[in-house]
């Protein structure tokens, strides 16, 4: 499955990744499987960001 996200910049998406990790930390005790899923999602998004070409200036 593919997802297209249109944001002003990669910084916004990085903030979403940080929020997923923070949410996973908060949910770890109550729902460890959900927390793990959110961490995997954050890792996948981070990997996709790392794969983007460097911006041209």
Describe the structure.
The structure is a single chain. The chain has 57 residues and is mainly alpha-helical. The protein has 2 helices and no strands. The N and C termini lie far apart (32 Å). 5% of the residues are buried.
Brief overview:
By secondary structure, the chain is mainly α. The protein has helices at 10-27, 32-51.
What is the element layout, followed by pairings?
Blueprint: H1 10-27, H2 32-51
Proportion of residues in extended strands: under 5%
* Main pleated-sheet profile: none
Task: Extract low-pLDDT stretches.
Answer: none
The count of helical stretches stands at 2
Tell how many strands the DSSP assignment holds. 0
- The H/E string reads HH
Distance between the termini: 32 Å
Which range best describes the helical content: under 10%, 10-25%, 25-40%, 40-55%, 55-70% or over 70%? 55-70%
| C-alpha-based Rg, rounded | 13 Å
- Structural class based on helices, strands and sheet pairing: mainly alpha
Mean residue pLDDT: 89
Q: What's the shape? A: elongated
């Amino acid at each position: 499955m593919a997802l297209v996200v249109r944001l002003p910049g990669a910084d916004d998406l990085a903030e979403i990744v940080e929020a997923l990790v923070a949410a996973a930390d908060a949910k770890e005790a109550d729902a460890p499987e959900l927390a793990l899923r959110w961490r995997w999602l954050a890792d996948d998004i981070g990997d996709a960001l790392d794969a983007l070409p460097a911006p041209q200036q």
